[in-house]
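Student:
Attend to each token:
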Amino acid sequence: MSALENISARPSFASFAPPSRTLMGPGPSDLAPRTLAALARPTIGHLDPAFVSMMDELKELLRYAFQTTNALTFPVSGPGSVGMETCFDNLVEPGDTVIVCRNGVFGGRMIENVQRAGGIAVIVDDTWGEPVDPQKVEDAFKANPQAKLLAFVHAETSTGARSDAQALAAIARRFGALTIVDAVTSLAGCELRVDDWGLDAVYSGSQKCLSCTPGLSPVTFSPAALARIQARKSKVQSWFMDLNLVLDYWNSAKRTYHHTAPINSLYGLHESLVQLAEEGIENAWARHTRLHRMLRAGFEAMDLAFVVAEPWRLPQLNTVHIPADVNDADLRRQLLTDFNLEIGAGLGPLAGKVWRFGLMGHSCREENILLCLEALATALTRQGRPTDADAAFAAARRALAD
């Protein structure tokens, strides 16, 4: 058969039918039935007046989620990494000094973004699993008073550590710098107050605690950040992410074509945010904390040790050390094949050393925790580490009752 005949041969496949999983890894999270239904609604044009009206509601809902009045608040068409690049590409000009905090994988990605935008990264390192040290940031500004930006991760997904965004932003303001903040895992999962804390450019992701399909990155920019973008001396290196162009698409007064938005995904995000507003943002934060305590009690009954100290531990991303003599990959495979349960592996230097358990959005439910404890106890016992699921259940239920 010739190459041309092979190309023209008609492929034969059945429609894809994904298995039903319980998602308790670092993302994506489970989608609520209402969100899944919203994704299946009829597609209309991205400049249709009905879609335009929905976009305006979406911006208002995102302002509520971020706890901000920033006019420039919208979802970037792309995953959280595109939201990250949107912030850096618009705010960093060649030669700018940027202080970047690295205490996990995603702080490292910030450094890469600064360098690709032509900036000079001054790196503040902290141990993985620990929060960013405000004193180190203060010292970095004193040594580099020309720094224009401070970049840090509020909720480090690779470790489950939370940093004090309010304190870090206050330091930046004292030195006349703006902040770029990764809130991919924190938005809607733990306290985040953009306006009260004085954060300038914040990006997140749709697939974590918002429990929507991956592929959208909510962002918000303060008036000071917008003023800096509009005063740039050089063009933004990315046409697609140039906010001076994107603004005209998300501006309801004079909406113009920029790109074809992911219409059905935006339906889903709108529905997820409607559900968040119905629950109440502070209630959502409290639910993640309450159920984290339930999961924590079960893990402690299994003698599983957390990586992050309790004051800085994310309720929505729980990272524990893998017990000695337990095969990481085999155990995660057992959870997936026998219980349809997905958890996360370690990244970077923590690969093979930790498990990451997500309690995000719609995944943050009591029944998911009980499934996780049962599955983990069974898999650990099979690997020669006898684990009492009943004791873990009892501890978890006591914690929930308390």
Q: What stands out?
A: The radius of gyration is 22 Å. The chain has 15 helices and 14 strands. The chain has a mean pLDDT of 95. The first helix runs from residue 3 to 8.
